[in-house]
């Protein structure tokens, strides 16, 4: 379809085309269920509009979360990369909360729980898993991930029972079973520029503690899908940056919007940018020689940026602040499914701020470091069988790169 490939800058101009495409996708007029996910999972403003219009066909009022998700997955087959699947689920989460404004969870928390349900579904359905995830493991894995608090225990027990008794079933068009894997658990949108996903909660600036501000130059190197940023978007640009909690806000100048409501922030961040710093890491870019005083920022979703500062002390100060914020405020990674050994998937990196004290936070991440070190040692001892397919070799290499970086 020609219209789906366009990416107009004006939302008003997009709307009629987006509405027509959404209608055709819902009626499967020339499309199949996998096509729906492909269109809804794209990262552009037009696809966001298509997703919003498509989800308007669903009325989830008075439905339980698992019931509504079951209805949605009955019409959409999740395919594609991690980020594409998660964007589709973000559309569902947003629509569910629109239909149920009194639901106990925020956008972020609802999306996290949906991802956890998909992981549980994978664990329960996999033929290779001898020991399934228990209810207590499911609940423990989600500890403190409800905007820093625990999810209502009865809600978790209800969705656990529902998924285990009646797993979500998705089929590709030839009728074969499509196993929903834990790739949807990688919270890419949490660390991606906020403008890329308008459905995640953007907090009131008044509630965020400011750690640093100042002018910087930024260069995009890798997008959140791990692919190199296209040539047209790689150039250096100047921003007025502020670090507030686990957010790095990038403004055109020092005139920061005074309004702090959700809509004004979203409008602003579509015109500039913002990056979540949970589980991020900054280091001196010693391999970059074209400019001085440059550091590299890695986000938890594989994006990479270069930032240039005015002098060496400023460069060190920005790196220290970013790493301090990431270390002290990031919640611990959510463990993968018990049997998720067939294919490596990055764990979910919760974007909620931890409620642990500094000693507790240190102890928690020491435990994580110990676990990762053990995994890396075991992984290095394992060898890819001779004659393995390219994707198996690539997966093995990706896991080693991830573990070494962690």
From TrEMBL:
PROSITE patterns: PH_DOMAIN, SEC7. Coiled coil: none annotated. Gene3D superfamilies: Arf Nucleotide-binding Site Opener,domain 2, Pleckstrin-homology domain (PH domain)/Phosphotyrosine-binding domain (PTB). Residues 209-327 form the PH domain. It holds the Pfam family Sec7. Residues 12-166 form the SEC7 domain. One of its GO terms (molecular function) is guanyl-nucleotide exchange factor activity. One of its GO terms (biological process) is regulation of ARF protein signal transduction. It comes from the Eukaryota. PANTHER family: GUANYL-NUCLEOTIDE EXCHANGE FACTOR (PTHR10663), PH AND SEC7 DOMAIN-CONTAINING PROTEIN (PTHR10663:SF376). This is SEC7 domain-containing protein. It comes from Helobdella robusta (Californian leech). The lineage of its organism: Eukaryota, Metazoa, Spiralia, Lophotrochozoa, Annelida. The gene is 20196567.
